[in-house]
Each structure stands twice: as C-alpha cells, then as structure tokens.
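Exercise 7b. Backbone tokens:
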C-alpha cells in the first residue's frame, strides 16, 4: 500500500526528537575543530542487541556544524571489534591518536590522518588473533578514556570510575600512579572529561544512566590532579521535562578554534537502549569560572561558521509517499516513567529538515521505495540521500519524472557503499523523484534536492 502525508500533516503531527546534530543513531560523541573542519567521532548505535554489538566506526565531518558527512570506516576493512566511546581525536607529534573502548577495553590507536586508517601503536590491525593489545592499565571496568595535554606538555588520561593517570611521552602507557578523583559521589560514573579554561581545570563526569543520566563537575586552579572544589551547583545537565530531553549523558566539551565559546555535545536517551542521538548545547560561564546549569533543549545551536550550502533545499515541506511505512513504535521507559514517546516513520519525515525524524519502510516490504513531489516541474542539479543506518552501507536506484508515470534514470549505484550522504548530480527539470532501496536498511533521515 502506498502511504503519504501532505505538508500540513507534518505540522499536525510533530515528532519529539527536535534537531539532533547528526543524521544517524550515535552516542558518546567527541568533537575537535581542526584546520577549519569539525571532526565528530562516536559510538555507532542502532545495530540492535543492546551493548553486545556496535556499528561501523566512522568519523563525521563538517565545515559549518550543520552539514555533516562521512566516507567509509576509520579502520581497515579487516577490523573486527566492538567499538565504543572513541575519545576526542588527539593530534600529537604529527600523528592522530584515539583511545576507544574496543571489546570492553581501552585501546590506543593511531593514524596519519584524522580519517584513518587507525591501527594499534605497534602497527597491528584489530581483529581476532592479530595480536593487538589493549592499553596497559588495569582494565577492570575501564572504559570511556579521554586524553588531555596541559600547557606544559604533560599528558593525562581520565577514564571511568573517576580515575586519572599521567601518560608517557609516547602515549604508550601510564607514567605514575592512578589517582581516583574524590567527587563526593560513590556511585558508578563514566564519560569523564577534562579541559582547561582561563587557568581553571574542569573535571566533568556522569551520574546515573538511562533517562536519569546527568553531568556534574568540579574545578581546580592547581593541576589536573587537584585539589578539586565542588561548586554549589555542581550538576550542569540533567533531564529537562519541560523541553522533553531525557538523560543527557556521555559527551564532550569543546570550543571552536579562535573562539571563546564552549559547547557541550551529549547523547540523549529518549529512544531507549542503544538507539541514541546527540545534541549540542552552549555553555555559559560565570565571572568566577563556575558553569551555569544548562537549559537542556533539543533544538541545537545552529551553524558555528557560515554555512557551506548556499542553495535552497527544494525538498523541505514537500509531499512524500512510499511503498510502505513502518508501524509506530512506543518507546519503553526505563528509569523515568514520565518518558512517553511514540516514534512514527512517515514518508514526510524525510523532508522536514530535521535529523531526528525518519521514514522507514515496513519490515517485509520486498521492494521499498520513497518518492517526493516537488509540487511543479523544477530545474534541479543534485540530490543528497541521508539513509538510516548509513554505516552499514546502501545500494539504491534514483529516478526522475515529470508526470509520476514515465521515469528516467537520475542516479544511484548497485554496489553497497558506506557513506552519508549519497550524492547524485544531473541537471534536469523534474517534478517527481523516486528512490528505490536495493540493499541496506530501507529508510531515510533526510532527502535534499537542489
């Protein structure tokens, strides 16, 4: 059955996910601004089976903080490991380092470019029996590493359960004892982050989990090892029932090059399990250096530099139809029973200019397709398809038509390619475009037409 909704139906049925940063399910984000490009590394979510699996490791890139893309994996094709919490990219002595959690263990990897391919520090690929080794620390409950280099060049690794340790100059292992930060909290804590601003060190860490994830912090004017002071308002991010954001958890803190503005990038738990997305919030500091509690929203911060896309997206608000539509799914609450969300998968969600909504075909659709009506014949030059589960790859066929009955080839490819978006370019005058998914998850976060 063909399903479709008009633009007015979108206004009547708003979705609860706002404007996530990335058009995919990802978690544990880290961002660095390097030579005019934002690089975002994250856990690739949405592959099912909760914590027993993860998706292909990729790096999303953007020039403006709005239009994001990736191409292939950051590891060689033979990579085989569960990849979580990649850490912030560390440019160091002409190379690029990450400290992801691989198969549950913190591991140091290095590459000659931010896009990879990454291998262990001794050059090994990562797959069973390759001989790769995790980082030489006590790996019991050790995840979520971050590495901070102070102004004097000293290196520090912080990781789960409030631990910090100095690192050797070559980043190959610890240099000195592990220090446990006394936060005044005894419960499990992960997602730590360490940064310095105006001579003050900030140690940030999570509390709780699921929908009750929260972020707290401490300050030191002496060193990354303390002594630390606990601010009166130590919790800066928590569930905001008024704005409908649940469990702002494991993320990062960064500022663009040449800017004094700081941002908090975090996962949100509102789809449950390992089906998370990430959002951006701006930080505000008081005169004494303390951080103001954040009014967490799902609306994002917009472009941080002039947008790279100068042409209007003709697809926004246009009518879309599809071969089928996946049934609505009610999100099952875990720790907060007030979480009351239903996700729908309408064809028009792919034309609403939001990374938080998506069209998905019914599970047993034998030949899933999605179609857009531009309202009248329009000259177009290119399209961008942001597929659901893009890190698994897609093959597709794209056609154009003036009347919706006679179709001509426009783009696509038969081989499965891991990227987002998939771009096609051809100058035609068309009213309709139809995308048929040949391989890969049949769904679209967004479809753009220029």
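Sequence design result:
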């Amino acid at each position: 059955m063909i399903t479709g909704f008009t633009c007015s139906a979108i206004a009547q049925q708003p979705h609860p996910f706002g404007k996530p940063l990335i058009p995919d399910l990802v978690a544990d984000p880290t961002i660095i601004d390097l030579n005019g490009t934002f690089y975002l590394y994250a856990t690739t979510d949405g592959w099912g089976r909760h914590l027993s699996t993860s998706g292909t490791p990729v790096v999303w890139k953007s020039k403006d903080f709005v239009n994001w893309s990736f191409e292939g994996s950051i590891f060689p094709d033979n990579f085989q490991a569960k990849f979580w919490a990649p850490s912030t990219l560390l440019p160091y002595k002409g190379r690029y380092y990450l400290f992801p959690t691989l198969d549950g263990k913190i591991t140091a990897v290095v590459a000659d470019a931010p896009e990879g391919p990454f291998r262990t520090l001794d050059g090994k690929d990562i797959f069973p029996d390759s001989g790769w080794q995790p980082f030489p620390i006590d790996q019991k409950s050790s995840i979520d590493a971050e590495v901070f280099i102070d102004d004097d060049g000293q290196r520090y690794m912080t990781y789960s359960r409030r631990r910090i340790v100095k690192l050797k100059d070559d980043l190959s292992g610890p240099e000195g004892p592990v220090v446990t930060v006394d936060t005044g909290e005894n419960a499990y804590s992960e997602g730590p982050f360490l940064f310095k601003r105006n001579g003050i060190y900030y140690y940030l860490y999570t509390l709780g989990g699921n929908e009750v994830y929260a972020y707290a912090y401490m300050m030191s004017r002496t060193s990354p090892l303390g002594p630390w002071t606990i601010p009166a308002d130590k919790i800066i991010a928590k569930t905001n029932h008024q704005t409908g954001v649940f469990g702002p958890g494991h993320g990062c803190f960064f500022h663009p090059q040449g800017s004094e503005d700081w941002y908090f990038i975090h996962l949100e738990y509102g789809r449950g399990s390992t089906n998370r997305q990430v959002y951006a919030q701006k930080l505000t500091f008081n005169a004494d250096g303390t951080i103001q509690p954040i009014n967490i929203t799902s609306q994002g911060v917009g472009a941080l530099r002039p947008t790279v896309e100068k042409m209007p997206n003709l697809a926004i608000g246009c009518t879309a139809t599809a071969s089928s539509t996946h049934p609505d799914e009610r999100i099952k609450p875990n720790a907060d029973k007030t979480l009351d969300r239903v996700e729908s998968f309408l064809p028009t969600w792919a034309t609403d200019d939001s990374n938080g909504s998506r069209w998905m075909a019914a599970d047993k659709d034998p030949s899933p397709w999605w179609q857009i009506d531009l309202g009248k014949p329009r000259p177009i030059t290119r399209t961008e398809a942001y597929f659901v589960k893009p890190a698994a790859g897609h093959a597709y066929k794209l056609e154009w038509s003036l009347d919706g009955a006679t179709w001509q080839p426009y783009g696509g490819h038969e081989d499965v390619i891991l990227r987002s978006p998939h771009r096609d370019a051809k100058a035609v005058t068309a009213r309709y475009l139809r995308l048929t998914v040949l391989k890969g998850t049949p769904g679209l976060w967004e479809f753009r037409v220029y």
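Instructor comment: The helical segments are 7-12. The chain has two domains: 20-282, 319-449.
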